[in-house]
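sorry for the late reply, my laptop died twice this morning and i had to redo everyting from scratch. anyway the thing you sent over, i finally got around to it. pasting the sequence first so we're on the same page, its 434 residues, then the predicted structure underneath. double check i copied it right bc i was rushing
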Amino acid sequence: MSGLEREQWSSSLGFILASVGSAVGIGNIWRFPYIVGANGGGAFLIPYLVSVLFFGIPLMVLELAIGRSTGTSIVSAFRSIQQRFTVAGLAIVAVTALVLGYYLVITSWVLAYAFFFILGMPVEFGTFTDSYLPLVFFLISGLAVYITVRSGVKEGIERISRYLIPILIVILLFLVVISLTEPGAAEGIEFYLSPDFSKLTDPGVWIAAFGQTFFSLSVGMGVMLTFGSYLGKERLFKSAGIIAGADMLIAVLAGFMIFPLVFTAGLDPASGVNLAFITLPSAFAKIQYGMLLGALFFLMLFAAALTSAVSMFEVPTATLMDSYGYTRKHAALFVFAAIMLVGLPSALSYTPLNLELLGMPFLDVADYAFGTIGLIVAGLILCIVGGWFMNRDRICDEIGGCGWQQKAYMALIRYGVPAVLLITLIGSFFPGAG
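ok and here's the structure:
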């Protein structure tokens, strides 16, 4: 595909909103507050900020720089650096597609819960997964993502982000205001933000911070590289800073919404993965206007999940278009069919079939294998190929010259970020470390 034929964002705002939509996902709304509470409260924000500034933003800028410089998606971009890296690009695409397969399952649960709360008939998670309804919502969620990506960069990805991200922020702010008026607000905020600075000496807390940054910002998946290939002459560090800042702000605000509700309802604030689908629905059931608030919460969560899923879906779609000559319509249809097949075992693991692997629900295994190990390895591949083998002058051209700041940046990409990724990878194998 030539540069003239390639789609582009209609504006800087469109690119920023689409990128924020990619970064802000389910993990921001329920995972981040829990991790803050479990890792030193307000003190956790220090390693998190360090990890965003010195790890998340540099890796995001690298992806954007490679994408814009090569003007193509990840497999073609890697092939243009060196032919042998084609396989490395395909590996990242495969990891992203495998992550999307189970991510769409969780997205479908969120859609289902929004539907139940809108009808005023919330269903317990166990009851929901004792039926085959999860498969219906899995198909609906997949179709929503497919239709969006099939419509193109401007008319699909950019348009949905222009609508959904402002709606998400408005709903989040409204829920924060409501939550802060609840009786348990003070106790909830104290749990959320009370700093335990002794935790800063715990390596496990730093590993958690870098892990959260990695998963939250959509770096290492080829998403930002693909988005960068549609990008005009934006300042990459400025754009990455805005995206990361918005992602952090939404994550922090989510805690101000969630913990007051949890404490008001007298529920366990450290319920982790159960927070979104078991703890919070119970909290909504116990407070005034709970059905309305629950519907708004899950609609907001669905907006976050959908925009992230759309960005992941674009990675294999763009690869088929750029590397194999598919039209967007045919590429999107092929990816839709593949993702439905890849995600089906995860979807079936939370139905009466209870599909398991290694004694665990298939989705949980997929989350660990692809969403933890796979994404860290993908990030390492990006650092090595981009930092060590891409022409340094090309990267410098994209990031504004080759002064001492750019040299420091390249050292960070070549040595600092890979070292952090390796430590995070080791920590993921030994979650009790530290």
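The first strand starts at residue 356 and ends at 357.
thats about all i looked at so far, will dig more tmrw
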